[in-house]
């Protein structure tokens, strides 16, 4: 399962983040990406469609999408769908981390300690 979210801090600090889980809701990997100053805000459902490769990905998002798609190339059953922020705490927290990263991207193989306790709660 892939959970993603975007966040905005202040007037111009944008970020995104996400988590990839196995079918039991357990952590596989996650990411946080600073987007810096943005002039475009995307509807969450558009992002879902990009990750499902149903619509094109803008050049600015290509590198990030490639890093998300790479673990999904395994022989796994993958479902990408929209969920609301209240049940998406881990991705929301990672998106807020992204707001602090400028234009840097962090890829987490191990779950960051600040969100570990939310991974199980979000999985249900």
TrEMBL record:
Organism taxonomic ancestry: Eukaryota, Viridiplantae, Streptophyta, Embryophyta, Tracheophyta
Q: Name one Pfam family in it.
A: RVT_3
* Record organism: Trifolium subterraneum
Q: Which Gene3D superfamilies does the entry mention?
A: Ribonuclease H-like superfamily/Ribonuclease H (3.30.420.10)
Q: Which PANTHER family does this entry report, sorted A to Z?
A: OS05G0353850 PROTEIN, PUTATIVE-RELATED
Tell me which SUPFAM superfamilies the record gives: Ribonuclease H-like (SSF53098)
Gene Ontology molecular functions: nucleic acid binding; RNA-DNA hybrid ribonuclease activity
Q: Which InterPro entries match?
A: RNase_H-like (IPR053151), RNase_H-like_dom_plant (IPR044730), RNaseH-like_sf (IPR012337), RNaseH_domain (IPR002156), RNaseH_sf (IPR036397)
Q: What is this protein called?
A: RNase H type-1 domain-containing protein
Q: Which CDD domains match?
A: RNase_H_like (cd06222)
The record places domain RNase H type-1 at 40-96
């Amino acid at each position: 399962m892939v959970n993603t979210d975007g966040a905005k801090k202040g007037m111009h600090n944008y970020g995104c983040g996400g988590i990839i889980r196995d079918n039991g809701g357990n952590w596989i990997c996650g990411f946080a990406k600073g987007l810096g100053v943005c002039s475009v805000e995307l509807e969450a459902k558009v992002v879902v469609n990009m990750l499902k490769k149903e619509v094109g990905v803008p050049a600015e998002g290509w590198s990030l999408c490639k890093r998300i798609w790479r673990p999904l190339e395994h022989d796994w059953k993958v479902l990408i769908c929209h969920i609301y922020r209240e049940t998406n705490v881990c991705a929301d927290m990672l998106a807020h981390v992204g707001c602090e990263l400028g234009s840097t991207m962090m890829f987490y193989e191990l779950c960051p300690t600040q969100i570990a306790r939310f991974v199980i709660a979000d999985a249900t």
